[in-house]
């Protein structure tokens, strides 16, 4: 067996071992006092738990970017009541289906005096053919809209870095699924990638892997963007975190038998949303060594 053939097996073995780890909480209250954090998709799952950590760690402001603002307000009330910290959370409308919504959100971010980290957690696993903003919906929601936001607010983050002599972070929540799309990626044109991704017939062929492909694009885009704007010039750290397999509602809309297999895997080795959220906290805490890197199990990987 060749070296290349062993890589997926090693990655799978590493994944299973990593799932068993008790992950650290990489930030302390003294790290978060007076700071402002933005977490998209914060009304449930990993985003909710990460935001809850930040409130507990005495952040001055935590902004929820959510599509369902009513659910966001319920989450805000629950966290602030449980932790006895009022008026810390703000709930902002943020819909990855709409570039106008993303741009409006970015405009509000530009009005903030300070941003210490932007956590791009919102996303979806979509199994029905749909087109949003001219692209297949997984591509729009998980990749295009997230990076539209990142690129839009980057100049403001750079100005904040210079003004306060800090290193704001952009933390992209990726997936180990983005590491297992090698064969699928080979089937796409190198010069017409979006055309292939937006081809409905090719979507039918690749549907089970399309979420992973959108996450692969996130990984690659983070790496490329980080190379274009090194920390030494921008003052901004960008990384991708893999939360692992977590007991969240991400797979609620996939076909029954796939959902059953996913549920069994989660029951055997799935992390709780709180444990998975620690990887997001690690992304915020990670040093500039993490710039452009893939982080998993609260460790920097290439």
TrEMBL record:
UniProt xrefs under InterPro entries: NAD(P)-bd_dom_sf, SDR_fam
Molecular function terms, GO-annotated: oxidoreductase activity
Keywords: Oxidoreductase
PANTHER family from the UniProt entry: PHOSPHATIDYLINOSITOL-GLYCAN BIOSYNTHESIS CLASS F PROTEIN, PHOSPHATIDYLINOSITOL-GLYCAN BIOSYNTHESIS CLASS F PROTEIN-RELATED
Protein name from the UniProt record: Short chain dehydrogenase atnD
Source organism (scientific name): Trichoderma asperellum
